[in-house]
Predict the 3D structure of the following.
Amino acid sequence: MIEKQTMERVINKALDSAADFAEIFVEKTLQSTITLQSDKIENAVNVDKFGIGIRVAKKHQSVYGYTNKTDEETLLRLATDLAKSFEGERIRKKIVLPEAEKGEKHQVKRRPDTVDIKEKVALVKKANSAARGYSDEIQQVNVNYSDIVQNVWIASSENIHVTDERVRTRLGISSVAKSDTDMQSGFNAPGGHYGFEFYDTFDVEEAAKEASRIAVTMLHADECPSATMPVVVDNGFGGVIFHEACGHSLEATSVAKNASVFSGKKGEKIGSELVTAIDDGTIENAWGSSNFDDEGRPQQRRVLIEDGVLTSFMVDYLNGKRMNEEPTGSARRESYRYAPTSRMSNTFIDNGESTFDEIIAATEYGLYAKKMGGGSVQPSTGDFNFAVMEGYMIREGKLAEPVKGATLVGTGKDALKKIDMVGNNLLRAQGVCGSLSGMVPADVGQPTLRISSITVGGRKGNA
Amino acid sequence: MDFKLLFDKAKKKNVEAIQVHLEEVQEIDFHIFNGELDKHQLADTRRLSLKGIYDGKMGKMTTEDINDDNMDEWIAALIDSAKAVESTDPVFIYEGDTDYRDIPELSQSHLDTLSHDEKLQMTFDLEKKVKELDDRIKISQAFYGEATKKVTLKNSKGLDLSKNVTNALLGADCVAREDDDSRSSFEFVQSNDPADFDLNKIARDLVDRAVSQLGAKSLKSGRYDILLENRASATLLQGFVGMFKAEAVQKGMSKLKDKLDQTIASSNITLVDDPFKLKSTKSGSFDDEGVATKYKEIIKEGKLTTYLYDLKTAKKDNVTSTGNAFAGGIAPTNLYIQKGNESFDALLSELDNGLVITSLQGVHSGTNPISGDFSLQATGYLIKDGEIERPIALFTISGNYLDMLKQVDSVGEDLKFTFAYIGSPTLRINNVIVSGE
């Protein structure tokens, strides 16, 4: 792709300044997507991305440049332009890169770019038929298949030189159910760091029916009441609340700038002692896993919170300089178009001891959020909001009628303290997380858990 | 790139018609944090998207590895893509229109009147001003980004168009802190003329917004009359853009189906899509299919007059394209609710008792673009006797966007655009559901 000697020359060119760090990130990515709408394949598109990012830094100050003109002359000129920000006497000696280390974990069996498009089309149609067949009330089904083969070569003045292949695939099914007066949608999108063999590891038709089941259930649901009440959040995608409301505030991106509610809180109790939270980028073939992070450091398993006590942040190289902490292999980026920063990988609250039935039975009145939709958070305050895609009322310790249109509103630090029951059924689910360094695949996860009191916004008016 | 060679090669492979869309972008960005240049970015990129008709189907592919040697591979990928398509919708490679509006102002940037160092200094100055305005400002950042985008659109039917847009963004964000409470805010100006970058105003507005939110608490659930401030209203509109797209309407995924020429909003609401707005990167005289763009009032005084069309959906409805084919689908250009004539202060004193909603969060998840339902986290102020009583946060407002549009009581004169060039003035709406404590 780009020769080792070229990478070395680019890094050394950048270090011909008062900079103390230089890095080159080379990316070649093949992406394929197939979309089906109204029972027919609407589009089948291949996207071929190719580009290079160069980062030069002094202490925690950095400059970044990217281009997809990849001849050595352009790269050396870019390195020179970037280094102009750090005028002064050279401080680093000429570096010699080690031989590239290749990532060996998360092997895939069938690289998606070797799979015939007809096979992908057949998969999409199978999902569509299953989702359609679930009920006569299903009005529309969209299926979106995607796969990506991302090859990266990363080298830096930190004696790093690695290459990694990230292969991911995902099948998104979205169903719309319709009655005379209402339309409701449901969504399910399993994915992983796998090749096409992923679709042999689970029942594709069941996954597709799940999207339709949610849509139909919500079509017959009442509006959710508005009140502050206990909320039982189910396992799997329910972990999006922790991801958004706490996870982002544990990233060095906000911690280092003192912009997080958790800045300076390491070693302190920040949540209920029932809460242990982990960010693990090493889980075999998980959606958010990779061999190396996007600064070329090995991915790690990080225990963020142990029994309610903050134990680790997620740290990238530059923010580590600012915080005086070692990087934790947490630097990620969507592509060469972004400088990396600290990001989550596969983040989840660990198992507790309660069973699902015990948690429901212990709740006199409240909301059971079976499937969460998306949400967002303001990192400086930790204020969050989440849509509940599929919800049910809990009355007298039993699941009652389905409700739609609920939004959960709170702050991360309060919610963490209010977790008063944690289940034993940990499950992870796939998401795409957007932040400073673009959109990256990330697993969220948790067992079923209960938040003792949280604001629920619904359209029914007040309970 | 040798376009003619590509077109000839495609023809030899029985591609009936082919179109190239080449986007070339140069960008610079600065980011100032705590008085230091925290980040500085330079970018120079190209992206080539091809589409072509093969055996009556449209194939597509996109590449950043732009090299004439790869042409055969591109055409093979295009044909593979077309072969997979089953949709029997008509496909188009467009010959072009006779007239395209000339908008020289879009490319005539005045940004070059400032040197690189002056732009950097301006960003430093902004960050400094923010910090100096109030000692409760604990974190401040300022940023400047400038991009020049060149789009070339050519096809084998003789279409040959190009446009050049240069625009910049100057903005800042800050966190105010008092006791154990933190509040943040964000302000920016987008323009191609440095005269529009009023540092004092940006800093003042930014700091006011953050500081005035300190100590915000929730409020009692209930129904309230609200002023939906310009930026909050624009954010909400952004969540419902999908409703106006012909594709959603034709697939039964929009509640605006069968509503043409009907009253769908209060008579003081006019919703405009204006591709000729100056100082916007969304502006231009042609869309991605080469259709001449048009100014249109999607809602005119409350009445729905049109959907947003590309060539395919227009053909289905037997109308002409509105020139809204963008980014592989249908998208507005500069979409906004036309301003009325009441000042924000007048609206506030008329409100008497109620809420001002200054921002809404979670639009991508808390809105249902099919049904129009929304339930969104909000911040703002509680208003008593026409005056701000206290800041409020951690509550939601909910309702249905189409119902809400019918209940707009007054429209302000303070039209403001979001990042994505979606705009609105402040709207007065009565009896909105609020969930708080």
In short: Chain A has a mean pLDDT of 94. The two ends of chain A are 62 Å apart (CA to CA).
